[in-house]
């Protein structure tokens, strides 16, 4: 029997990798896409099949997590075995600008999915994955476990409207699991990136700028807090864990992380080093800059001493999460999950992809 999956957020970074993975596994994949005035399906266009052909395993439905009527209708029509609720306004900084919207989509949107499954009498058939996040922890030092990591038992202390909305999503998922015996679980995923990462998240912003600066197409990269530390993995590895969570005997919550943390400044260093460019950082806080000290790649005509990174306080957040590092031991043992990528490989893949795009004037 072909399994049927429904993915909200299918047009996003994770949705696109997850759709590929499920299609490879033989699933029939349905996705919710939002109506937009310009195309928003670039990440999944390669999966699209004309619905007039036979044996179509991939179908998109117009919808929005703010609209219960439409969520109920889609779930009724699709009768999914598995729902992956990845749809969200996922940018932490932007959540300070539109906090009510984020609460509606990221918080109540999760409730709408769970409630639709319950109303439609699908609680015994449909398994639900909720995209929870390391932002729930808020980076409070005292809440780390004795090994110095955040794990499934660490207390939460969200530091943004995004984190606060996602904490509702976390608890309502857990509550529906306990109240109605639903198979619903939270993946508490730490940051994960890829060449498909949205262009305003820090890693992608850095790799795009690195490529364009190396090619002489951009002058300088403006960033916010260079001291922030994140546990960065590759999205391709992380969608494997989402799937594995829905294949267990019993629904449980899992932390997915690499167990290593790196600061934004070092990510910048690594990205430029991929192009053979060595940087020196000087100054501090709002005056910090990075200048080129060595360029040993003859393809790039970059001037030694050129300032390529500056600080723009516009990118600071009203409340910041200083450091995140996750303990993936439960996922390692129970899901047999281990990432294939390390940070070096991730940076290399992102810079290589952005160099190609910059050369083709695609970014
Ligand atoms: P993206 O921002 O790349 O994708 C978000 C997706 O949600 C897009 O498809 C977007 O559609 C869709 N969406 C936004 N608003 C709505 C709405 N109102 N109704 C329906 N769909 C909507 O995020 P990622 O792929 O990186 O992340 C996937 C999920 O995982 C998100 O919930 C995120 O919060 C969470 N997460 C991500 C982590 C990461 O490091 N990437 C870490 C932990 C959790 P459109 O394309 O039209 O904008
Ligand atoms: P984050 O990712 O907030 O961790 O949320 P982001 O890449 O936006 O920021 C990471 C850290 O970098 C610092 N930073 C900057 N960030 C951005 N975006 N732009 C800048 O110019 C910049 N300069 C420094 C930030 O202050 C922050 O400390 C991501 C999202 O995918 C969430 O949806 C997800 O839940 C979490 O990861 C886990």
Automatic annotation (TrEMBL):
Catalyses:
GDP-alpha-D-mannose = GDP-4-dehydro-alpha-D-rhamnose + H2O
Q: Which GO terms describe its biological process?
A: 'de novo' GDP-L-fucose biosynthetic process
One MF term in the entry's GO annotations = NADP+ binding
The protein's organism comes out as Flavobacterium commune
What residues does the NAD(P)-binding domain cover? 6-350
Nucleotidyltransferase is among the record's keywords:
no
| EC number(s) recorded for this UniProt protein | 4.2.1.47
Q: What class of enzyme is it?
A: lyase
Give the HAMAP family listed for this entry: GDP_Man_dehydratase
Family note: Belongs to the NAD(P)-dependent epimerase/dehydratase family. GDP-mannose 4,6-dehydratase subfamily.
Q: Which SUPFAM superfamilies match?
A: NAD(P)-binding Rossmann-fold domains (SSF51735)
Task: Print the keywords alphabetically.
Answer: Lyase, NADP
What is the name attached to this protein's record?
A: GDP-mannose 4,6-dehydratase
**Which cofactor(s) are needed, names only?**
NADP(+)
Gene that this sequence comes from:
gmd
